[in-house]
Design a protein that fits this description.
Blueprint (H helix, E strand, L loop, with lengths): L2 E2 L6 E2 L1 H16 L7 E7 L17 H10 L8 H10 L2 E7 L11 H22 L3 E4 L8 H5 L7 E2 L13 H13 L5
The structure holds zinc ion.
Zinc ion binds next to helix 1.
Length: 190
């Protein structure tokens, strides 16, 4: 019998669980003891190479955008060195759904509903286990449920860009990234 996955709430096959555990293991390796800034996305990326903590030579998709926005250069560095640098800076990345969205889960309203369903367990995980000093939302897919996210008890502030998400995968990402780095340069909690 298929049970819901405890990382995403979707019905889980053995393969799904194996993939979740693999990503969890990769991420845990570079989890800072004290998380300064928690970067919170919506769904773990579909492609393994887009997942920040996946081992490999290059960073693609979300991982590449994120490193670029944070000003962490990857040129001439091994993935391990980049991961270590990200960790030393006190960054940790996680997603509301710790697994990719299932192929038949649909888009739009259905995805937003799945996200909304996971908000309470995620808030508990952030408050009790991850305990960051601040949270930055990195995914446009969280836009439609921003009010719900802001209403959660996270135990720390959510850093916003003039009341909105940092759209660093949007068209004006250079400016957005600059504002993000500026916001993160301030001590957490202010
Ligand atoms: Zn899952």
């Amino acid at each position: 019998m298929a049970l819901p996955c405890d990382g995403c709430g979707q019905t889980a096959s053995a393969e799904h669980i194996a993939r979740r555990l693999q990503r969890l293991e990769w991420a845990t390796r570079y989890r800072p003891v004290h998380i300064n800034t928690l970067l919170l996305g919506a769904f773990s990326p579909q492609e393994e190479r887009d997942f920040l903590y996946a081992p490999g030579e290059e960073f693609h998709g979300e991982a590449a955008l994120l490193l670029d926005a944070l000003g962490i250069s990857t040129a001439g560095k091994t993935a391990d060195a980049v991961h270590a640098e990200f960790q030393r800076a006190g960054f940790f990345l996680t997603h509301v759904l710790e697994c990719p969205l299932g192929k038949n889960a649909g888009q739009g309203a259905e995805a937003a509903a799945l996200l909304a369903q996971r908000l309470q367990p995620v808030a508990t995980r952030i408050r009790r286990s991850l305990k960051p000093k601040r949270v930055v939302l990195i995914s446009q897919a969280l836009g439609p449920i921003l009010e719900k996210v802001l209403a959660l008890e996270l135990g720390c502030p959510v850093v916003l860009d003039n009341g909105k998400l940092f759209e660093f995968d949007g068209p004006r990402r250079e400016n957005t990234s600059a504002r993000l780095r500026e916001a993160l340069a301030r001590p957490a909690g202010n």
